Amino acid sequence: MQLNSPLARYTETIEGKVQCVLCPHRCLLEEGKVGICRVRRNEGGRMRIPFYGVLSSVAVDPIEKKPLYHFYPGSTIFSVGFYGCNFRCPFCQNYTISQHTEEAALRTSPSSLVREALRAGSFGIAYTYSEPLVHFEYVMDTAKEAREAGLKNVLVSNGYLNPEPTEELLPFLDAANIDLKAWNEEFYRREIKGSLEPVLEFIRRASKRIHLEVTTLVIPGVNDDPDEIEEAARFLASLDRKIPYHLTCYFPRYKYSVRPTREEDLDPLIERARKHLDFVYAGNTGGGNVTLCPSCGQEVIRRIGYFTRVVGGKNGRCSRCGEAIYIE
Predict the structure, then answer these.
(1) Are 19 and 43 in contact (CB under 8 A)?
(2) Total of domains in the chain
(3) Is 257 left (phi over 0), alpha (psi -120 to 50) or beta?
(4) Average of per-residue pLDDT across 298-303
(5) pLDDT in tens, 91-100
(6) Any bridge partners for residue 314, and if so which?
(7) Are 69 and 101 within one domain?
(8) Which one of 57, 140, 248, 269 is CB 3.0 to 4.6 Å from 283, fit for a cystine?
(9) Are strands 124-128 and 152-157 parallel, antiparallel or unpaired?
(10) Residue 1 lies in a domain
(11) For the chain, how big is the Rg over CA atoms in Å?
């Protein structure tokens, strides 16, 4: 695919306008207008991708930073970020890239990106930092080439994608961490300018196909209702009680000045979530997180910051009792 503003996929033409049907927003765009994502544009009556191959950042990160605690623990992964997002979170922790675009940035082809990942000695590529799914075509093209090169594909996303592109993407993914903003439809509509159910549907589909972990950024007095956190955990457990669930501390960013989340704020929420899930973790705390066998209690994975060691597991099972630990 050409790098200079290629055609977008998942579009329809309605009365001279172009409708994007990639995500549930289904933006209907007049000539020259961009969607809520800021990166898909009606140019001459056709949907174009002017930011194809435009990356906001490239780094080699600990896999735990995604966060993925049960997928290649202790490894590092080649990570790429983009511009734009199809949500409008006023508390966004990465708003400098999610709520802005930069057309002058360097463009990188999928082939070049895969070569860089291989040169870095990484086991895979993580599509992360802002919202990779609004760059669906680039992620798909890169994921296919990465798969052919023997690399794993990891997605860190809000999961706001329609079912058809979801089904096209999942066969090329190996793992994902999906950001579940809250267990509250009104919160999604009011604060994020989206809706909850499409995210839950993405999680349902992903849970059957790939390694899945889920994160909720906990904001004091905003989305920290213990009953809602427990409902989210109950939903995940209905899919698989071994899905790791990360409850992470918020820090004031962008338009929000709510006080930062304290580690002790997470404790009762983690306790509620653990009624239903085997693996619940506190995130953004600066401390460590230990994975214990849910059957016998043996320490399986020890983490101090981003230093990780598997100390009591083998082949995805507890070395003492043989319980499955959901480690890839």
Answers:
(1) no
(2) 3
(3) alpha
(4) 95
(5) 888 887 888 7
(6) 317
(7) yes
(8) 248
(9) parallel
(10) no
(11) 20
